[in-house]
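A reminder before we start the practical. When you read a complex entry, don't treat the lines as separate problems. The point of joint prediction is that each chain is placed relative to the others, so the output describes one connected object in space. Small molecules and nucleic acid strands, if listed, are placed in the same frame. In the example below there are two entries. Take a minute to note the order of the lines before looking further.
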Amino acid sequence: MRQSQLLRQKMVYSLLAWTVGIAIFFPILWTVFTSFKTELEAVATEPSFLMFDWTLENYSTVFIESRYFTHFWNSVVISIGSSLLGLLIAIPAAWAMAFVPNKRTKDVLMWMLSTKMLPPVGVLVPIYLLFRDFDLLDTKLGLVIVMTLINLPIMIWMLYTYFREIPSEVLEAARMDGATIGSEIVHVLLPIALPGIASTLLLNIILSWNEAFWTLILTAAKAAPLTAFIASYSSPEGLFYAKLSAASTLAIAPILIIGWFSQKQLVRGLTFGAVK
Amino acid sequence: MATTSSRFLGRIMISPAVALLLVWMLVPLAMTIYFSFQNYNLLMPGMQEFIGWMNYEFFLTDPAFTESFFNTLQLVCGVLFITIIGGTAIAVLLDQAIVGRNIVRILVLAPFFVMPTVSALVWKNMFMNPVNGLFAHMFTALGLEPFDFLSQAPLASIILIVSWQWLPFAALILLTAIQSLDQEQLEAAELDGAGPMARFYYIVVPHLSRAITAVVLIETIFLLSVFAEILVTTNGGPGYASTNITYLIYSQSLLDFDVGAGSAGGIIAVIIANVVAVFLMRMFGKNLEK
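Here is the predicted structure of the whole assembly.
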């Protein structure tokens, strides 16, 4: 009796959860479907769900008519470049705060967090003018620098919470054996903290890939990553739904895959370790 | 056991990060403050001069400022409201024993990984467009007039789009919090004679409040700076109906080339963000101190 009641409860909850899940996912699903339709079918008054003539035409149009690969490559360079550069600066800092803390460490961490509260428009004009004067406008290098700096506090916080979980005895043992600090970090800390470092890297790739303030303001045709390329569809000519869908599907697919793999670590990174 | 030499080394290791962040924060901010007191228009080079508080006066008395201030407020509060309520409901639902929970979680999480320009353009064109959008087709099928979302209710439409992007974030964090609840603690409380209500109130609620605090703080920081979604959907219009402070400053600085007024606006945005941050920290601060 109780068994069947539990089963029924499970069925109801499952049905509800699946309905909510599909409803939330639907815009993405619809975009993927539309990317395989012809432009005419994409705007048909009776939208077809699965029963349409699947075509790859939009994908080839996007590849041929726009410089899709250039923008894709820009996104790759900017997000991976800034994440690696960020790690290079953040790992030593997080090491210092986790293993040789002093009385100001907590204040420094809070201060780093507070830099994230500075709204980007507060420095919009000077950054734009500095970029103009240093010839960094519309360059990948310029965006790598900006992305590294805006994500540095998150990287340091995330690494700090991972490093703090490593018992310092492990590092001390290595030091007793005569290891220098440098080799202690490279040969002892990094291998132990590798999962944490990997998820920090992934989260930062996601954040920089999707960043859409500085990428839209500081780039034009040459260094524009996918965020800015997709924005160019906001003033299109003629029918463009299917092409927009194809370009969008290609732009979000890599991050959806990375994101699903790193969803657990995401929580910790985005809440600065407040929720684990 | 930190030795003197390792302490010294620690300082060296941390200094590049501190120096970079300090420069990144202070130099541009000092420049913004300087420009905010200058009559400086990019179209009129060489005419730069000190004009005192005029830019602030100009920015603050502009009716566009008042309108975009309240738009910002509505945008932030609207999205927070939708995502916290919806996120809690989804988190509680996903915590139940359901069939294919991992797949549902993946589906719910997905919008968070979609870049802002994609989600805004997909919603704008394929759902909210009054002629070809899916909503228009649905309205027609039901015998209703199609509704032009982005010109009739631009701000509400943007709130909807941004909420779709942030709902997964709230749901994921609250779900993680619910799942990390210490079951032994709950059982111990039960053995000590605490009823279900007492257990919920004294253990579950304090546990979740920390996560809700984190969600509110982090979302607020990002929501104050919503930009791309407005740029690609309405350009802040019609009029200033969907302009927030971020977008207003952008248009003054880089579309009207009025660097002085844009900078004054930038400083005001920094002040607003600080007031909000201090207010939120005061309100929720003790939840995070654990």
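Discuss with your neighbour: Chain B has a mean pLDDT of 87. What might explain this?
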